[in-house]
Design a protein that fits this description.
Radius of gyration: 20 Å
Number of strands: 9
Shape: flat
Structural class: alpha+beta
Helix content: 10-25%
Strand order of the largest sheet: 1-2-3-4-5-6
Strand content: 35-45%
Oligomer: single chain
Distance between the termini: 24 Å
């Protein structure tokens, strides 16, 4: 599978109303500098390439909207918002591919940046995205199987945290069998890998976690044999 890379960049100045708690800075209209860069692969498959570009445009707009009204100290309006989108490509044979986008966003004077993961999966032969129901004939079963196995797969890491802190600071609702909790999944030749977002199962300081689910452990969910022939 061949693909190239493109990088898009934009630096914008936009007016925003800085909203802060009463009694601190009040409100001030300031110009916020927005810097946005995005890297994305080009596969020379028209429908896939068009979809990737359309996704990125919408994704950056939504990310910017999330920072609308960001609090800016009136004495330091020159700060702004930085957004950078990078990617990694994970092929499975010549037909299927996952594109993992990592979005870094930081607002001037924020306590820390935020990072989110978005995964798009494609059937290159048909030129379309793959959702969970395209990968498994029983997607709800796949969710239940992953939710049951995920805590155990991460147990060694969680035990290490427990030894350091005396308890496990996890958020168990992040493992529940919902589409959102397992949306960032990457196709692998022998299974799928799920990325758990910041704050999904652990506090920010502990970062993100990944869990790999061998396809044989998901057989009862009906894996797509075109993606995983060995799961027949």
């Amino acid at each position: 599978m061949r693909y190239g890379w493109l990088i898009g960049a934009a630096v914008l100045l936009c007016a925003a109303m800085a909203s802060t708690p009463a009694g601190e800075y009040g409100k001030a209209e300031v110009a916020i500098r927005v810097s946005a860069t995005a890297e994305y692969p080009v596969f020379n498959v028209t429908r896939v390439d068009d979809d990737l570009q359309a996704f990125l445009g919408s994704h950056i707009e939504k990310t910017l909207a999330g920072w609308n009204g960001v609090a800016v100290h009136p004495d330091q309006p020159e700060g702004g918002v930085e957004i950078a989108v990078s990617n990694a490509v994970e092929p499975v044979g010549d037909r299927f591919v996952s594109v993992l986008f990592q979005t870094f966003a930081y607002a001037h004077m924020a306590a820390h940046p935020s990072t989110t993961i978005t995964v798009l999966r494609y059937d290159m032969e048909e030129g379309r995205r793959l959702e969970l129901e395209d990968c498994f004939s029983a997607p709800e079963t796949a969710l239940r199987l992953m939710a049951a196995a995920a805590p155990g797969l991460l147990e060694p890491e969680l035990e290490s945290l427990e030894k350091k802190m005396g308890y496990i600071p996890w958020f168990k609702e992040g493992f529940e069998p919902t589409r959102d909790n397992y949306a960032a999944f990457v196709l692998k030749p022998d299974g799928i890998e799920v990325v758990f977002q910041q704050y999904q199962i652990l506090p920010y300081a502990f970062g993100m976690r990944k869990a790999f689910f061998p396809i044989q452990s998901l057989r009862s969910a009906g894996p797509n044999p075109d993606i995983w022939p060995t799961a027949k």
